[in-house]
Amino acid sequence: MVQVALDPEIESKEIRSQLAEYNIQESSQASWILTRSKEDNLTVVDVDGRRLEIDFDRQVADYKRTHRGSGEPLAKALGFKKDVRNVVDLTAGLGIDAVFLAQIGFRVTSLERNPLLIFLLHAAQKKTQRPEIKNIKWIYSDAKSFLQNYQLPARTSCYFDPMYPEKKKAALPRQEMVVFRQMVGADVDARDTLRVALEKEFTRTVVKRPLKGEVLVDKPNFQLTSKLIRYDVYLPHMSQEVME
Ligand SMILES: C[S@@+](CC[C@H](N)C(=O)[O-])C[C@H]1O[C@@H](n2cnc3c(N)ncnc32)[C@H](O)[C@@H]1O
């Protein structure tokens, strides 16, 4: 059960009922405080004052990244040029990739199992005026249980971006990343989740990995790389497709 302390300035019936929707308990002893930023975003603050805020309209964040459309490695990996337009993103996180995919023209369903994150994602979606973000379907669920009952529409790809292992000598990440890591932990079940996704036989299943990271399960059908990232692409067993 996740707990938050409520900043008295934002206490309201509405906030309390939204927290209850995601099973988030209010407690003055909690390690997270829920407050509002000066930009009026609901924000989680940790005991050391580090903040995590999701704001899809913020210029400095990655939510408006410029892109080469269908030429982007992630779009290519998911099969945009092969007429794939539906994506199930198993790992919403801060919603950066989901927003990017929606911006390119994918219809995105994005899952998140951390209640505080899905709470922040829904709040940020409500606040933004960007229509492509309004269209993203954010769902509070673990990917494995969601996939069990999921009826797969034609030409739908799956995107999986579990937490990377923490680098031993990494420079201290941005404060948001510190809070984010504390919040979600290590995704130790990533291999199991990927196996469940592969059984579904999506048009493509794409796994984001560090450039030199090991593959999560079996050998992918092909890989696409950019400067720091590698996408491992798995095709259905009987697929005749080749990469493009
Ligand atoms: C590395 S982050 C994803 C970042 C995301 N792609 C973005 O652009 O912001 C991984 C996220 O996936 C979530 N996650 C991991 N495994 C999951 C699962 N099986 N079901 C639902 N969410 C999961 C974690 O809670 C975490 O928030």
Adjacency order of strands in the biggest sheet:
8-7-6-9-10-12-11
Low-confidence stretches: none
Task: Kindly state the percentage of residues in helix.
Answer: 25-40%
The span between the termini is 44 Å
Specify the structural class: alpha/beta
Arithmetic mean of pLDDT: 91
Topology pattern, helix = H, strand = E? EHEEEEHEHEHHEHEHHEEE
CATH topology of the domain at 66-170 and 185-234: Rossmann fold
Quote the beta fraction: 15-25%
Number of helices: 8
Query: Quick one: biggest sheet?
Result: 7 strands, mixed
CATH class of the domain at 66-170 and 185-234: Alpha Beta
Task: Work out the radius of gyration.
Answer: 18 Å
CATH-derived architecture of the domain at 66-170 and 185-234: 3-Layer(aba) Sandwich
Shape: globular
* Number of strand elements: 12
CATH level-4 homologous superfamily of the domain at 66-170 and 185-234 = Vaccinia Virus protein VP39
| Bound molecule types | S-adenosylmethionine
